[in-house]
Design a protein that fits this description.
Strand content of chain B: under 5%
Radius of gyration of chain C: 24 Å
Oligomer: heterotrimer
Helix content of chain B: over 70%
Order of helices and strands of chain C: HHHHHHHHHH
CATH class of the largest domain in chain B: Mainly Alpha
Largest sheet of chain B: none
Largest sheet of chain C: none
Number of domains of chain B: 2
Distance between the termini of chain C: 27 Å
CATH superfamily of the largest domain in chain B: MetI-like
Distance between the termini of chain B: 12 Å
Order of helices and strands of chain B: HHHHHHHHHHHHHH
Radius of gyration of chain B: 24 Å
CATH superfamily of chain C: MetI-like
Shape of chain C: elongated
Chains: A alpha/beta (331), B mainly alpha (343), C mainly alpha (297)
């Protein structure tokens, strides 16, 4: 187990008192696995990523039974130790990559920041050229051929796709074990998105690093995804193998999301109403108690006011009192 | 980039031209005789008056007059003072040095603590240090400079008697004014008792510079703090942390350079403030700079001096502004891009 | 589809309430607001509150220290100056000269500047861009210097100084208004109302104005702070209010000669000026923070 999160709770103070934005989230990423976390915007997926990286500002309070990376507990580390782990073993790429590049420094200089000194073998004087060569090879690896021109350009001269490639190059600079990708392609056109996905898949195949992919659309996840987790309003709804989950969802939320993505309805008769989830995602101030999907769930029953725990059911884990498609007898 | 520089320079030339037009018009707008107002020669001095009248082309139409005015301006003949018949341009050159001396020293004194405290406050956002720095800077920013100078004189110079009250140097020293800046003059003329002279000059210059530096320092603190807070919220700071850089390195190589970009842009407004305060400080400390001369000449109605002083100060401000713009766009690539996109 | 009404109604405070909340959060800012209101009150009703006339000379009480010192007299709470004039009276009268008049002048030049700025923003083209460059230049020249030039033409005096400051502030309001409108113009909601086919006047008053009023309020406090400081500085340089007028700046100038013998004559107008400026700046700052917070939401 590379990353093991158990019951991660992140809370903050709002005008209406303390709110658990993330409510006992558990998430596991194995070595060499591509794990996709799917949820609507505002469901707290980015919070998880930031909590792993330790980027959260003090107004978010982070608690967890376990936040382990390999065998170290990330929560017990000092900021400095954590920074070291992050620098070497975990890397992150973001959505809207351009804004994550410093506008005043050339791309080359920013990339060479990511190259660690211990990765360089030469003497002090040779380091500069060695660093440069390293940066050039990084650029080649993400498919940028004209490294010289790229190294001398500034963020504002790049396209969104190129900027994301730079971010990936900087992320793989020291061969991380885990790459967290926070909606890296959500602002891109489909063609560029496929390019980035292909690049990530290649790198995954080549270096065997795990990828925790965060996505807001079930229809646009990476094909190589091995495991899938659904998050809604700060609660994990369902986790399991990607194919199995897409084939027969057990959680009403997964089903609802699947129903809204069009490819499932190819065989529907014309003029049928597209099934959607009723209502809107609750705001932070008005989180429902119990299962947070409750008010919008068509299968909801009185026991749903108690939060269901994430339980192992057959090949997956589901947090629902009345899971679908598992054993009809219970339903 | 070259086009941008040329455009800025062209703009500077046009504004300087407008400035001379304005200064030229002033001699008509001031009460009294325009010939006297621009040359400083009274009508009773008939011989020289007619000379000036003809030299400045007052028998021709107004465009020719302006042409002659420009000619005189570039020759360095800015008329003579109505009060003591000093040639205005020569005097202004000397006084310019004196003004620049305290203004620059105050600026230098303000920059380092101003930026340092601003960064410190931003890094401790909403913590006690931040509140302390912020309230000090807000109140320091609100102290009227003339009152502050008076208090400083009363406490430091009169009550404690540590520093002299006014002037540039002890009048016993005879320093030939060459640049107007007293410290430079001492180094250039190399008087016998150079050490004593220097000590006296430094003791004289300390109080005005200290008082003058307070306001820009406070402004810089606030400016640096707010733009640093902006920068710290930016995504590229997060990604710098994600690379595993240490906090110190993120601050030093990403946060501060980007903060400076905003600070440099706003330096211009600080400069206006500094010049205003320099003029007032010069009056209070009897510092022989342009400002004190300009203000004295306003109530003495010494029009050639007003004209010249105004021209000099305004030209200085405009040049510095263009200089700042150029530095800003030279140092920060994406500014250039925005400018090109806007043009 | 109707939204299931399961949640209690969320009440979002109005912009004005938010500003008030911000003032409530920060006790210093609230104090500044109260002081400002008090000073406005003084400059309106000051003359009815004072025990003496501003230039009334008490020959039996010359250079008396404030009442709490040993030589003080309770009749003169803050002492008297070298001509035997009551300091309390003069400070209260001074509020009108140093705060009240500049306040009115700022309002007047704001009205002129804003309407000119709005006109300039609506008429796009060469005229507008030359105007912009001219304004940029004008803005870069310190306000006090411009005021000095105007005074050089018109001659010293309180009314001339006020006029000069008013004239100097107009371009600032013009510039801010124009820039604010130009910034808003880029935003989609403006395009939306244009597409609705509204008239220019409607666009200006109902679309732009509610959105730029925040910026203008902030500029108003900045302008007020500049105006107060400049009028006091001009008074101090003996170019503004003339000698017997109890304007704080000129009081400071008069106190120069006696500052060592009777320091309170120098301290009091200075403190009054300082407190006023701090309050104005603090109120402006708080407004700015409150508005910034609203934008962030």
């Amino acid at each position: 187990m590379l990353l093991d999160i158990r019951n991660l709770t992140i809370s903050t103070n709002t005008a209406n008192g303390r709110v658990n934005v993330l409510d006992r989230v558990s998430l596991q990423v194995d070595e060499g696995e591509i794990h996709t976390l799917v949820g609507e915007s505002g469901s707290g997926k980015s919070l998880i990523a930031r909590a792993i990286m330790g980027f959260l500002s003090p107004r978010w309070e982070v608690q967890a039974d376990r936040l382990w990376f390999q065998d170290t507990d990330l929560l017990n580390l000092t900021a400095k130790q954590r920074r070291e782990i992050i620098g070497v073993d975990i890397a992150m790429i973001f959505q809207d990559a351009k804004s994550y590049l410093d506008p005043n420094i050339t791309i080359g200089a920013q990339l060479s920041e990511a190259v660690l000194n211990q990765d360089l073998s030469g003497s002090f004087f040779k380091r500069k050229s060695e660093r440069k060569a390293k940066v050039a090879s990084l650029l080649h690896r993400v498919g940028i051929k004209d490294h010289e021109a790229m190294m001398n350009s500034y963020a504002h001269q790049l396209s969104e796709g190129a900027a994301q490639k730079i971010m990936i190059a900087s992320a793989i600079a020291h061969r991380p074990l885990l790459l967290i990708a926070d909606e890296p392609t959500s602002t891109m056109e489909p063609a560029t998105r496929q390019q980035i996905y292909r690049l990530l898949a290649q790198l995954h195949a080549r270096y065997g690093m795990s990828i925790l992919m965060i996505s807001q659309d079930l229809g646009a996840i990476m094909q190589q995804t091995q495991r899938l987790s659904m998050i809604y309003s700060g609660q994990i709804m369902e986790t399991g193998g990607a194919d199995a989950l897409l084939e027969s969802p057990s959680h009403p939320y997964t089903e609802a999301l699947l129903n809204t993505s069009l490819y499932r309805h190819a065989k529907m008769p014309p003029r049928t109403r597209l099934p959607t989830l009723a209502g809107a995602e609750p705001t932070l101030q008005h989180l429902p108690i119990g299962c947070r999907l409750g008010p919008r769930c068509q299968y909801a029953r009185p026991p749903c006011v108690k939060t269901p725990s994430l339980e192992k059911r057959q090949d997956r884990q589901v947090a629902c009192h009345y899971p679908l498609h598992l054993d009809e007898g219970k339903k | 980039m070259r086009i941008y520089v040329l455009r800025q320079l062209a703009l500077l030339i046009i504004t300087l031209f407008l400035l001379t037009v304005f200064a030229f018009c002033l001699s008509y707008w001031f009460p009294g005789n325009p010939v006297t107002n621009s040359s400083g020669i009274f009508t009773d001095d008939t011989l020289r008056y007619t000379e000036a009248f003809e030299a400045r082309g007052f028998d021709h139409n107004i465009l020719v007059q302006y042409w002659f005015y420009l000619e005189h301006l570039f020759r360095g003949d800015w008329g003579i003072s109505l009060l003591d018949a000093d040639p205005v341009f020569e005097q202004l050159k000397l006084r310019f040095g004196a003004t620049l001396e305290i203004a620059l020293l105050a600026m230098l004194l303000a920059i380092i603590p101003g930026i340092a405290f601003g960064v410190l406050a931003a890094l401790n956002f909403r913590k006690p240090i931040d509140h302390i720095i912020l309230s000090i800077s807000l109140s320091g920013y609100s102290i009227p400079v003339f009152w502050f100078a008076q208090i400083a004189i009363l406490v430091v110079a009169v009550h404690w008697g540590v520093l002299p009250i006014a002037g540039q140097i002890n009048p016993l020293f005879h320093i030939e004014p060459l640049t107007g800046s007293i410290l430079l003059d001492i180094f250039i003329t190399q008087p016998e008792n150079i050490e004593l002279a220097l000590r006296s000059a430094i003791r004289h210059i300390m109080l005005p510079v200290l008082v003058l530096s307070v306001m820009p320092m406070m402004l810089l603190i606030r400016l640096t703090r707010s733009s640093m807070l902006d920068v710290l919220d930016k995504n590229y700071i997060t990604s710098a942390y994600a690379k595993g850089l240490s906090t110190r390195r993120v601050i030093a190589s990403h946060a501060i350079p980007n903060t400076m970009q905003n600070v440099i842009r706003e330096l211009g407004s600080m400069l206006s403030l500094l010049i205003t305060n320099t003029m007032i400080i010069e009056v209070i400390f009897s510092w022989p700079g342009i400002g004190s001369w300009l203000i004295r000449s306003i109530y003495e109605r010494d029009y050639p001096v007003i004209q010249g002083g105004l021209l000099m100060i305004a030209a200085l401000i405009l040049c510095v502004h263009v200089g700042l713009n150029l530095i800003h766009s030279w140092r920060y690539p994406q500014v250039r891009k925005d400018l090109n996109a806007a043009s | 589809m109707p939204r299931p009404n399961l949640y209690y109604e969320e009440r979002t405070p109005s912009p004005l309430e938010r500003v008030w909340l911000e003032f409530n959060r920060n006790p210093l800012a609230r104090a500044a607001l109260y002081i400002l209101i008090f000073i406005i009150f003084l400059s309106m009703f000051g003359p009815w509150l004072t025990p003496y006339g501003p230039n009334e000379q008490m020959l039996d009480a010359i250079s008396l220290p404030p009442a709490w010192s040993d030589d003080g007299n309770i009749r003169f709470l803050l002492g008297t100056d070298e001509l035997g004039r009551d300091m309390v009276t003069r400070i209260i009268y001074g509020a009108r000269y140093t705060f009240g008049y500049p306040f009115l002048v700022v309002l007047a030049s704001a009205a002129i500047g804003i309407s000119l700025g709005a006109t300039a923003a609506i008429t796009v083209g060469v005229k507008s861009s030359t105007l912009k460059h001219l304004l940029d230049v004008l803005m870069s020249i310190p306000s006090l210097l411009l005021a000095l030039i105007i005074i050089a033409i018109t001659g010293p005096g309180l009314s001339n100084a006020l006029l000069a400051i008013g004239l100097v502030l107009i371009p600032q309001f013009l510039h801010v208004t124009r820039n604010a409108i130009q910034d808003e113009r880029q935003k989609p909601y403006v395009t939306a109302s244009r597409l609705n086919g509204v008239s220019d006047f409607y666009l200006l008053t109902m679309v732009f104005f509610p959105n730029i009023v925040k910026v203008l309020v902030i500029q108003l406090t900045i302008g007020l702070s500049i105006a107060i400081l400049d009028i006091a500085a001009l008074g101090f340089l003996r170019l503004g209010a003339q000698s017997p007028t109890p304007e704080w700046g000129s009081m400071l100038a008069q106190s120069l000669e006696v500052a060592y013998i009777s320091p309170w004559v120098m301290a009091l107008p200075g403190i009054a000026l300082f407190v006023t400026l701090v309050s104005v700046n603090l109120v402006g700052e708080t407004l700015r923070i409150a508005i910034q917070k609203q934008l962030e939401r």
